[in-house]
């Protein structure tokens, strides 16, 4: 068979014309696309400079506003930072004293240092007093106005020029350690704001004089009421003791857990707990306080300072100080509130000289705990509350610091006890047992 060649049929003239027309239309959009590029570019060229101009104007306005704001702050700072000249000594108020990096004392004058490590709070305004002003306030430091003799000075009751009652603490010369304690206390207390810490109103550093001015706490120290020199003094009742224990726990909770880094009081004891007219407690005397490190519990190694009977065993033996050292001291104070005994009493029978050693084995036995209670309470206390407070005290004075609670846990354990007490006595809560003869 022969092979046939089949030729493709020729397109009719009309169809060919249509195909040509379709090809022409398909190429047409491409031509329109090229024509539209020029108008879009022109629009961008017009819009971009306008946007850039607007941005530059906005930046300029922001810069002008920030400069005016900074100028206003500088003017306010200049007004507040008034300079006081006292004989050879110049003080700049509102300056803060750095614990670790403060400048040296020169020519008997104390100069404000750089900002402290306590970055979480701003310095509160504390007044700078002249020594003459404080002489007037205390009637020339009259002995009749003495309200306390502390470890490092004498405390006078005074009335400031505006009529405010104040406690004026005159620090006695202790060399470099005393100077460090003064700087530390001014720096810390000008930054700490808590209703459970005695407020620093101001200070004086005229030449060699070092004086601290505090809010006045009319009821004195807890030491004076728990261990009065006069046996006929009225006894603080059970409810007031519970409230005092909660106030003190809140103070340490604030120092340990609400400041960054934590603050270790290092000398927490009954004589450093002051009471207001309603017997609400506040902590003071931060001369030995230390700022903790960033490690767990703020561990720092330091010289062993404090009061015998209140020192945590690991701190007394190694010098390693943590917030748990304060917890131990708090436990000792709690035992004093429970038993009415002092931390160390050599007049007691053998085996009872040290309060913690004597009390710790008895705190977990309900019958023995009841026999430990301060006889001055005359049985007027809640046995249920007593058991819980004894358990808290037992945990706080554990030999191993890791077994001691943090102060937040102590606060949360005491709150229900005080709330129950408040609901039982909603209106008047006596600070003293009325059955005991008042002090003459």
UniProtKB/TrEMBL annotation:
Write out the GO MF terms.
Answer: ATP binding; protein serine/threonine kinase activity
Which sequence ranges are marked TM in the entry? 43-66
- Identify the PROSITE patterns for this entry: PROTEIN_KINASE_DOM, PROTEIN_KINASE_ST
Q: CDD domains from the entry?
A: STKc_IRAK
Claim: S-adenosyl-L-methionine is one of the keywords in the record? no
Chain positions covered by the region annotation Disordered = 1-34
Domain Protein kinase span(s) in chain numbering: 141-418
User: What's a Pfam family in this record?
Assistant: PK_Tyr_Ser-Thr
Which InterPro entries does the record match to this protein? Answer: Kinase-like_dom_sf (IPR011009), Prot_kinase_dom (IPR000719), Ser-Thr/Tyr_kinase_cat_dom (IPR001245), Ser/Thr_kinase_AS (IPR008271)
Q: Which SUPFAM superfamilies match?
A: Protein kinase-like (PK-like)
Keywords, alphabetical: ATP-binding, Kinase, Membrane, Nucleotide-binding, Serine/threonine-protein kinase, Transferase, Transmembrane, Transmembrane helix
The record's section on Gene3D superfamilies has:
Phosphorylase Kinase, domain 1, Transferase(Phosphotransferase) domain 1
Protein name per its UniProtKB record: Protein kinase domain-containing protein
To which species is this protein native?
Ilex paraguariensis
Q: What is the lineage of its organism?
A: Eukaryota, Viridiplantae, Streptophyta, Embryophyta, Tracheophyta
